Automatic annotation (TrEMBL):
Cleaved signal peptide residues: none
Name by which UniProt lists this protein: Pirin
Binding site for Fe cation: 74, 76, 118, 120
Molecular function via GO: metal ion binding
Record flagged with keyword Phosphoprotein: no
CDD domains in the cross-refs: cupin_pirin_C (cd02247), cupin_pirin_N (cd02909)
Provenance organism: Acrocarpospora phusangensis
């Protein structure tokens, strides 16, 4: 999914150590993708107060609502896009030749590396899910672009119907087959009554409620905000107030400063200028075949130099 904002803000992150345990509710902002009749999402990364959780640098949650997703071909650099659905179907096409329908419980993972373009479409119907980005570290940000689809992910189940699906990285002894480049956790958690999960004390974590309501570490979480939990925790305890579905994000605090503007992740103002120029010139991102419509134009860069501002606002 694209950042369709035509006046995107500069986001520069990284270069700070792991915090201790926290309980910080981060309120997102509503963003309409593709115009006033298009799909509305809640963006909680980057947001006021925090730009990253580990290498996770972008989080849009949407639905459940009747909507049409139609995101024209657009570019990405220096990141992985992670597409996760609870309800509905979305067709992905990209410039390395991939064409894949994603369904609930499956993972579409696109690694942009030095540059890729893709589109996303759905028919009218109920859509519910999340779109996330993971920043690529070091020289991996220039990796060859590629796409993965994983329909069979590891699942840990409880007798009451609770379950944990490991989408990215590792959790509770289960490891996703998806390729990662930093220590990472991404998991969907369905809680019917209560459960506890082991955490790594060297990783920082956050959770977002997709549906339901639950008590987490003594506080109540409902759909909307992202709950930042920090690092230094040995376990995560969740007690459902009603059947609930959450996403758990975790990772080693990202030590590199990154500049994130529109759909690009780079390391400097000059990186972003070059990415934008290449996209507008039709160079280096390839062609998305099969989409009925024009590609997105890049927004105009701000009149100031994009500068580092740290992991926290």
């Amino acid at each position: 999914m694209s950042n369709l904002d035509q006046e995107p803000q500069e986001d520069v992150c990284g270069a700070e150590g792991a915090p201790g345990p926290a309980f910080e509710l981060l309120t997102g902002r509503d963003v309409v993708l593709g115009g006033p009749r298009a799909m509305r999402v809640t963006r909680t990364l980057p947001t006021r107060g925090r730009r990253m959780v580990g290498a996770w640098c972008f989080l849009d949650a949407y639905g459940p609502e009747e909507a049409v997703m139609r995101v024209p071909p657009h570019p990405h650099t220096g990141l992985q896009t992670v597409s996760w659905l609870v309800e509905g179907e979305v067709l992905h096409r990209d410039s390395v030749g991939s064409e894949q329908v994603i369904k609930p419980g499956q993972l579409n993972l696109m690694t942009s590396g030095r540059g890729i373009a893709h589109s996303e479409e759905s028919g009218r119907g109920v859509l519910h899910g999340a779109q996330l980005w993971v920043a690529l570290p070091g020289d991996h940000r220039f990796a060859g672009p590629h796409f993965e689809h994983h329909a069979d992910l590891p699942v840990l189940e409880w007798p009451d119907g609770s379950a944990v699906t490991v989408i990215m990285g590792e959790l509770a002894g289960l490891t996703s087959p998806a390729q990662t480049y930093t220590p990472l956790t991404g998991a969907e958690i369905v809680v019917i009554s209560s459960l506890s999960l082991p955490l790594r004390t060297d990783l920082e974590y956050a959770v977002i409620m997709l549906s339901g309501a639950a008590e987490i570490e003594g506080g109540t979480l409902e759909p909307g905000p992202l709950l930042y939990l920090g690092a230094g925790r040995e376990e995560l305890s969740i007690r459902a107030l009603e059947p609930s579905r959450l996403l758990l994000l975790g990772g080693e605090p990202f030590q590199e400063e990154i500049v994130m503007w529109w759909n690009f992740v780079g390391r400097s103002h000059e990186d972003i200028v070059k990415f934008r120029e290449d996209w507008e010139a039709g160079h280096g991102f390839g062609e998305v075949r099969g989409f009925d419509g024009a590609s997105l134009r890049a927004p105009v860069l701000p009149g100031t130099t994009l500068k580092p501002r740290g992991r926290e606002r």
